[in-house]
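Practice problem: Cation:proton antiporter
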Amino acid sequence: MNLWQAIEPSNLIALSILVPFVGALLVVATGKWPNLREAVTLTTAVVLFSVVLAITDYTFRGVELTQNVVELFPGLALSFSVEPLGVLFALVASFLWIITSVYAIGYMRGHDEQNQTRFFCCFALAISSVMAICFSGNLLTLFVFYEVLTLSTYPLVTHAGNDAAKQGGRIYLGILLTTSIAFLLLAVLGTYSLTGTLEFQAGGIFNASHSPMILSVLLVLFCYGIGKAAIMPFHRWLPAAMVAPTPVSALLHAVAVVKAGVFSILKVVIYIFGLDTLREIVATDLMLYIAAATILISSCIAMTKDNLKARLAYSTVSQLSYIVVGALLATSVASAGAALHIATHAVGKITLFFCAGAIFVAAHKKNISEMRGLGRKMPITMAAFAIGAVSIIGLPPMAGTWSKWYLTIGALEADKLIIVAVLMISSLLNIAYLLPIPIKAFFDTPDEQRQPWTWAETKEAPMPILIALCVTSLGCLALFIYPQPLTDLINLIPGVSTQVGSTSTLNGGG
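Answer key — structure tokens:
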């Protein structure tokens, strides 16, 4: 971090956005030399993470970082500011970009993918827009870069160029653009009309003088307008996008897109509505139970899917609504659980998708029914899958334990026993659709393979893929053993605290 101390602290915000953007340009410039192109990608990812670490250091020291870029309309500018929730998301996205880049190099080469330069370029552009979302200072900035993220990831979804990819891309683009323009833009305009500002403020910008009915309408518009959160029925874009290469699936499900959605909902809840105001809105319970229904319905659908990526896609739909539920419970601890789940779900789910890609590259298998005995040939991959699955389920000693614990405590504090039941039932469903996969791979061995196992049988994916999935699976364990850096950051969010029994006042996050 000493490297960045000579730079004006506020300029680090611009640097976090520009580093991946410049990286994208350099990827195009070096496209004819794959080794150099991939070195540029990895270097850019490492530099970005170091910038985010410097921003994190200033955040812990209480230094406020803000930056206005350009005034688009009178009194409305593209502006950026650093707050702890955005720093948490930026840390997750920038660190996982490094790991995903390592994985993508092995996957794209191992699978002999075409248009690799375009892939790495668009990936970097997507990360650039994610950094802008992380540090958005107002709703206008958030909306603009939310749209940029959608457009920059469209070429990744349609990467294969076949009819299935084009159809998936149309669904992806159609649902996300329709919801953001029809609902989110309307919510932003309604907020500005009501308050005269779009700035994110501690405790929110709404108050008791605003009509509860109007605030209810705005809450529904925000929840459905942020389509990347995949609340039913606006979730179909996510399974449709599974036609993309596995590194893109990792980007969609762990690093950027879906996390941008739930991050945006959580940020709107904390900094636009405020937890105290949110509890007084009639529509809060309505959207809470819709999100709870999304958790259960998508889990049940996941159980019916034989295609591994499809099962993981519906699992993601379910897990995203954990974060939405945590936000809408409107308690300090539940909000902390929702914020923590952004990180714990990211490392768990990216591990599962890395494993799915490894299985496809090494064994050419997509369906779970074909994975009987696969643990003999891919023991490292299937062991990593088991670790990621346990984390997603929320069992010790894996990271997902802590976020689900805080969500459950938050539901109890809000006196929402139905939500507690939903969380418990969902965890059982997680067990039902995830654990049979490694069990089938390790213990359901075909008759012709029932002889002593030897390392000579193994046929793992290329080394970069193995390195990536081992790092993320170890991350699942590390965040269980030592979650304190993340919880310390979450406790800096105004009104949010991991302390049971804390209130949602502005001083509650200390």
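Discussion: The CA atoms of residues 131 and 430 lie 31 Å apart. Students who identified this feature from the tokens alone can consider the problem solved.
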